């Protein structure tokens, strides 16, 4: 498995499994109701308090999936608001803007000159929200947070960061890109999902207490959709505890990602250079991408074929990701499969001589 987002390898951890089992024994399998109605248990509140404290935020709200968590941001938007959104932002972020009825202005991926130009072009008096991702899900690169935060400050815009792929992994404490770059106080709203490093299902927004309280009462996913199951909450809570207690998992996943990047580059592949667990292997052509994916699958290695519309035409790639649970032997097997499959499909030369 070279495509999992279980970055810290916690979904198989016996302590996380046991926490989920215990929650089922004590609270049953479902809350059968939304957060606003009957679906808020003490467990949900405990998870929110722990997460808010972990992220150094006033408050947090936990919803049933990461996708729904981003959709919940629509409650903060109105038709006079302008949302400046990175071209490569996740579909849930794009959908939230549409659902909120705000004006969406898309800036070229991580292009802060374009963002600056759009900011200068916003009518005075409109509410402006900049939305981007800490680590981009498909290409694994990091947003240019220092410049984006500076621009947000200069133009009085609010800043939301989706930290789905960096929370738990980046920063000494695992608080993601804002911590890594020393810019936590520049980000107004932090989003994370529980389905990646936190080995569960669900998501959360963390920020100012008033904003979070508003989401709790007005966002459709909080009002009209059943809350996280007790097992999901308990697993996320235990995983969060381990994120804090076992920083060596962060070192391991980063070492594993570096080993994958070095190995594939040595074979002649064009590989992304960002120090994150997501390793994009650029192929650049739809059919070649699918053929390579199939050859890897036949060799027993599961990867992600990232094709349009997940990326633009011509930027097709094979996405692999390292986890802290990969052994050296497994990493070498993945690299070995890329050597054989890439040669067979013609993406790399016979001796790893490059395209
Ligand atoms: N944001 C980003 C950046 C994501 O990559 C994902 C999932 N791929 C989500 C949000 C949605 O999270 P979930 O799958 O937990 O609903």
Automatic annotation (TrEMBL):
What reaction does this enzyme carry out catalytically? 6-carboxyhexanoyl-[ACP] + L-alanine + H(+) = (8S)-8-amino-7-oxononanoate + holo-[ACP] + CO2
Its name, as the record gives it, is: 8-amino-7-oxononanoate synthase
Record has rRNA-binding as a keyword = no
Keyword Transferase listed? The answer is yes
The highest taxon in the source lineage is: Bacteria
Which enzyme class? Answer: transferase
Give cofactor(s), names only: pyridoxal 5'-phosphate
Question: What is this enzyme's EC?
Answer: 2.3.1.47
- List keywords of the entry alphabetically: Aminotransferase, Pyridoxal phosphate, Transferase
One of the record's GO molecular function terms: transaminase activity
Q: Which family does it belong to?
A: Belongs to the class-II pyridoxal-phosphate-dependent aminotransferase family.
Cite the InterPro entries for this sequence: Aminotrans_II_pyridoxalP_BS, Aminotransferase_I/II_large, AON_synthase_class-II, PyrdxlP-dep_Trfase, PyrdxlP-dep_Trfase_major, PyrdxlP-dep_Trfase_small
Q: Name one Pfam family in it.
A: Aminotran_1_2
Query: Where's the Aminotransferase class I/classII large domain?
Result: 3-337
């Amino acid at each position: 498995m070279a495509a999992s987002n279980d970055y810290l390898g916690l979904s198989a951890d016996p302590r996380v499994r046991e926490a989920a089992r215990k929650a089922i024994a004590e609270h049953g399998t479902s809350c059968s109701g939304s957060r606003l109605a009957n679906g808020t248990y003490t467990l949900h509140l405990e998870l929110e308090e722990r997460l808010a404290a972990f992220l150094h935020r006033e408050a947090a709200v936990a919803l049933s999936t990461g996708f729904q968590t981003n959709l919940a941001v629509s409650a903060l938007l109105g038709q006079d608001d302008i949302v400046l959104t990175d071209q490569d932002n996740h579909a849930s972020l794009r959908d939230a803007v549409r659902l909120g009825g705000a004006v969406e202005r898309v800036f070229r991926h991580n292009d802060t000159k374009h963002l600056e130009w759009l900011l200068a072009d916003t009518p005075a008096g409109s509410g402006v929200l900049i939305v981007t991702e800490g680590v981009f899900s498909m290409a694994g690169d990091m947003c240019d947070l220092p410049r984006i935060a500076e621009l947000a400050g200069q133009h009085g815009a609010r800043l939301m960061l989706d930290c789905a792929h960096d929370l738990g992994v980046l920063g000494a404490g695992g608080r993601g890109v804002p911590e890594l770059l020393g810019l936590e106080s520049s980000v107004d709203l932090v989003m994370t999902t529980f389905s990646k490093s936190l080995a569960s299902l669900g998501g959360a927004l963390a920020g100012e207490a008033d904003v979070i309280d508003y989401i709790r009462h007005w966002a459709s996913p909080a009002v009209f959709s059943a809350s996280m199951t007790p097992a999901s909450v308990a697993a996320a809570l235990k995983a969060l505890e381990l994120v804090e207690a076992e920083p060596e998992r962060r070192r391991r996943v980063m070492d594993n990602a570096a080993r994958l990047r070095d190995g594939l580059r040595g074979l002649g592949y064009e590989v992304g250079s960002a120090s994150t667990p997501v390793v994009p292997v650029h192929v650049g052509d739809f059919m070649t991408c699918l053929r390579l994916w199939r050859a890897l699958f036949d060799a027993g290695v599961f990867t992600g074929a990232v094709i349009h519309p997940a990326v633009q035409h011509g930027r097709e790639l094979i996405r692999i990701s390292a986890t802290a649970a990969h052994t050296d032997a497994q990493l070498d097997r993945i690299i070995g499969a890329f050597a054989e499959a890439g040669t067979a499909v013609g993406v790399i030369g016979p001796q790893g001589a490059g395209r």
